[in-house]
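User: quick one, sequence for these C-alpha cells?
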C-alpha cells in the first residue's frame, strides 16, 4: 500500500482533512516530515475514527529520511517547473503506483501549502504527478490534492486482484538510499572525467535522475551502476597520480 508523505505541512486542519481523505479511499500509511504542528488528539477530533492512521503515522525530520526505504517515489506539483522531469497525470500513474507497491515501499509526496515542493525535493522523486485543472488556477488545496490522488488510486485498485510480487528479482527494487548512493557515485565519476567542465552538473544530474526514475532499477542494478561511477573515478585518480609521479616510481598497477 502506498504511503502518503506530507512535507512540512503548515496547517493542522489540512493534515486532518488529508487523513480523512486517506480513510475514505482506504489508504493507511502516512508520514509527516517536519510538520509545523502535530497533535493527534486534535487531528482525530476533526477527522473522526482515523485513530489507526494517525497513531501509526511516521514522523521524520527530513524528506531524505522519510524516503530512505522507498523504492518508488512520486512527487506532486500544481505545475511543471523545469522541463527535465517525468510529468504524469494521476490516472495514468495510478496503476503503476499500485503495481510498484506490491513489491516495495511506494511514497507519494505532497508539498507545503505556501510553496509546494522545492526542486531539491522533486529531485528525490522518480516521477511527478500533476492533477489537471483549469489552466488559470492550477493550485489545489493540499488535502484536496491528497483526496484526488487517493481517489484515482482507489479507482485503479477496484476490481484488480492483489498482484503478487513477481519474484523475478532476487534483491527487489532499489531504495531511495541506494539510488542516492548511485547518483553520488555517478557524479563522482563524471566529475573526474571532466564531464562537468562544459556542462552544469545540476542539470546533467537532473536528467540522469529523470532517466533512472523511469526505469525502476533493482538493488543489484543500482549497485552495478554505482560501481561504474566509482571505478571511473578511482581509475582516473590513479592515472593522474602516476602521471604526476616520478618515472621510476612504477607500482604493480602501472601497466601502461
Ligand atoms: N503555492 C504552491 C502550491 C502548493 S499546494 C505552488 O504553487 O507550488 C500544496 C501541495 O498540494 C502541492 O505541493 C502539491 O503537493 C499539491 N497540489 C496542489 N495542486 C496540485 C495539482 N494541480 N496537482 C498535483 N498536486 C497538487
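Assistant:
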Amino acid at each position: 500500500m502506498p504511503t502518503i508523505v506530507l512535507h512540512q505541512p503548515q496547517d493542522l486542519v489540512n493534515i486532518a482533512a488529508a487523513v480523512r481523505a486517506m480513510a475514505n479511499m482506504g489508504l493507511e500509511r502516512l508520514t509527516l516530515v517536519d510538520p509545523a504542528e502535530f497533535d493527534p488528539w486534535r487531528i482525530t477530533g476533526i477527522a473522526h475514527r482515523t485513530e489507526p492512521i494517525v497513531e501509526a503515522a511516521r514522523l521524520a525530520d527530513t524528506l531524505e529520511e522519510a524516503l530512505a526505504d522507498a523504492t518508488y517515489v512520486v512527487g506532486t506539483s500544481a505545475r511543471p517547473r523545469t522541463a527535465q522531469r517525468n510529468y504524469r497525470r494521476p490516472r495514468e500513474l495510478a496503476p503503476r503506483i499500485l503495481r510498484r507497491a506490491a513489491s516495495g515501499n511506494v511514497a507519494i509526496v505532497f508539498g507545503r501549502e505556501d510553496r509546494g515542493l522545492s526542486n531539491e525535493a522533486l529531485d528525490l522523486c522518480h516521477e511527478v504527478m500533476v492533477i489537471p485543472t483549469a489552466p488559470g488556477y492550477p493550485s489545489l488545496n493540499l488535502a484536496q490534492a491528497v483526496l484526488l490522488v487517493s481517489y484515482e488510486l482507489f479507482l485503479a485498485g477496484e476490481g484488480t486482484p492483489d498482484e503478487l510480487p513477481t519474484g523475478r528479482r532476487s534483491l527487489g527494487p532499489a531504495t531511495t538510499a541506494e539510488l542516492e548512493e548511485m547518483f553520488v557515485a555517478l557524479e563522482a565519476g563524471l566529475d573526474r572525467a571532466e564531464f562537468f567542465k562544459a556542462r552544469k552538473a545540476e542539470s546533467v544530474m537532473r536528467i540522469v535522475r529523470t532517466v533512472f526514475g523511469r526505469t525502476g532499477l533493482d538493488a543489484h542494478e543500482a549497485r552495478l551502476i554505482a560501481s561504474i561511477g566509482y571505478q571511473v573515478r578511482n581509475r582516473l585518480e590513479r592515472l593522474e597520480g602516476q602521471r604526476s609521479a616520478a618515472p621510476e616510481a612504477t607500482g604493480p598497477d602501472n601497466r601502461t
